[in-house]
Amino acid sequence: MNQPLCLRTVVDLRAQVAGWRQQGLRVALVPTMGALHDGHLSLVRLARQQADRIIVSIFVNPTQFAPHEDFGSYPRTFDQDMALLAQEQVECVYAPLATEIYPAGFDLSIILGGPATAGLEDRFRPTFFHGVATVVAKLLSQSAPDIALFGEKDFQQLAVIRKLVRDLDLPVNVIGGPTIRETDGLALSSRNVYLSSQERHTAAQIHACLQEARTALLQGEDAHKACEEAKSQLQKAGFDIDYLEYRDAVTLGPAGSGACRLLVAAKLGTTRLIDNIGIEG
Ligand code: PAF
């Protein structure tokens, strides 16, 4: 099995992509922070259906972590990631040196509106989307892919990236991949490793409660009531809820008559979990 080519500099990445372009090949980028799981691999498989060459970027982006967050301890499993990507026959891993993303004197700061200020993740992680938008803008500009794939699990992040790409006229098609779940419904996340076995068991309640709320909403239940019921069930199970909100699926503003989404963030012990579910309009 061939290991993916591993590139560490923008110069090398651009030369590689230019070569592919000369051959008329379509290029996909799957941005990640490593600690790869089936959720990431499902994006790689989706990319494979729509592109000839796949770049997976692996970069634990310091600017999207607040000082009290887990940048230092975020799982780093590079060798295992490379082996998984070799199995998927990924052509290229871009694991940039930090200085390729944030060279000395780097001064850019992106001010975001729209879905980045919807009052969901941004209320609890006020600098998170600035870090994400900065690194994603850099990765897209460095790799110039035809398509870029992100998971729907981080639904607000996906909305922010779609808006970033539209507002900057970046010539890339952003594709959202469905959330991949454990058999009991827990959404795959690199941070699930932080859960104790008891917490891991309880964590499945998040998806179950979202599904119940979804059924109630589709049966015409008042949105406020459905959200309050879901919150109280989660609280009873031991979650500390940051938010559980019913929103428009594109703007993440107040829900209207179009497609909507229920989004939740809640802590179980010290681990913060997020999830969401679609509600057809
Ligand atoms: O979702 C992630 O893993 C990260 O936020 C991303 C999009 C790779 C940016 O660092």
Instruction: Tell me the strand order in the biggest sheet.
Output: 1-4-3-2-5-6
Beta strands, count: 9
From the alpha carbons, calculate the radius of gyration and give it in angstroms: 19 Å
CATH class of the largest domain: Alpha Beta
Mass-distribution shape: globular
Counting helices, strands and paired strands, the structural category is alpha/beta
CATH-derived architecture of the largest domain:
3-Layer(aba) Sandwich
Please work out how many helical segments DSSP would assign. 10
Please tell me the total number of domains. Answer: 2
Uncertain residue segments? none
Oligomer: single chain
Order of helices and strands: EHEHEHEHHHEHEHHHEEE
Task: Provide the residue-averaged pLDDT.
Answer: 97
- Please, what is the CATH homologous superfamily of the largest domain? HUPs
- Tell me roughly what share of residues is in helical segments: 25-40%
Please name the defining characteristics of this protein.
281 residues, 39% helix, binds pantoate, 2 domains, Rossmann fold, three-stranded antiparallel beta sheet, 9 strands, six-stranded parallel beta sheet, alpha/beta, Pantoate--beta-alanine Ligase, Chain: A,domain 2
How would you characterize the overall build of this protein?
The protein is α/β, with parallel strands linked by helices. It has 2 domains: 5-177, HUPs (Rossmann fold), CATH 3.40.50.620; 190-275, Pantoate--beta-alanine Ligase, Chain: A,domain 2. It contains 10 helices and 9 strands. The strands form 2 sheets. Strands 1-4-3-2-5-6 form a 6-stranded parallel beta sheet, with helices on both faces. Helix 7 (155-167) links the parallel strand 5 and strand 6. Helix 6 (128-143) packs across helix 7 and helix 9 runs antiparallel to helix 10. The radius of gyration is 19 Å and the shape is globular. The structure holds pantoate. Pantoate (PAF) is lined by residues 31-33, 61, 64, 132, 135-136, 150, 154, 157. Pantoate (PAF) binds next to strand 2 and helix 6.
